[in-house]
Amino acid sequence: MADVHVVAVCGSLRDASTTHAALERALEAAERAGASTELLDLREFELPIFDADRDREDAGDADELATRLQAADAIILGSPMYHGSYSSPLKTALDYCGFDEFRDKTVGLLAVSGGAFPVTALEHMRSVCRALNAWVLPHEVAIANSHSAFEDGEFAESKLEERVVVLGRRAVQYATIEPDPDSFESDQNIGAEGK
């Protein structure tokens, strides 16, 4: 698995982000499984709100972000849940991508919520990835009650930590899985063409 490259995208802009901390842990597990890893912190990218009339090359760091995702064998998307869905920074980042970045790639999902389980955020990210013909891991991570998920930089519950670790390992394990046929959603995903 030494040739597998796993890239995680953090959709949280908070300084003390639980999403960021959990993604770091998933990538540590991916490294232990033999992969090279990279964490893309969206705070470090200039990504204007997506405008279909603007070329990606003229949209801040959008082209760089897409290039780095295209180089990945597997991608882990992490987001806090806002209003029952995933974050607008992650949505903007995904809007600048298309089939070239996601088609036939393995994608893992992680969502964080200050309250109840962020299931709808996971469902929405899964739908977007399928529309881009990605292969989304069945194993996903939902971190509820994020204010108590970590204590002194460590997971408060070993079972939750194990779910995050497994996500990192599965991203490596299934990075070279034979892809599924194109999804029916992708046939109608005109916006993903030519990005």
Automatic annotation (TrEMBL):
GO cellular component, one term: cytosol
Superkingdom classification of source: Archaea
Pfam family, one: FMN_red
Occurrences of domain NADPH-dependent FMN reductase-like (ranges): 5-147
GO molecular function list: FMN binding; oxidoreductase activity
Cofactor: [4Fe-4S] cluster
PANTHER family linked to this entry: CHROMATE REDUCTASE, NAD(P)H-DEPENDENT FMN REDUCTASE LOT6
Family membership noted in the UniProt record: Belongs to the SsuE family. Isf subfamily.
UniProt-recorded name of the protein: FMN reductase
Species, as recorded: Natronorubrum halalkaliphilum
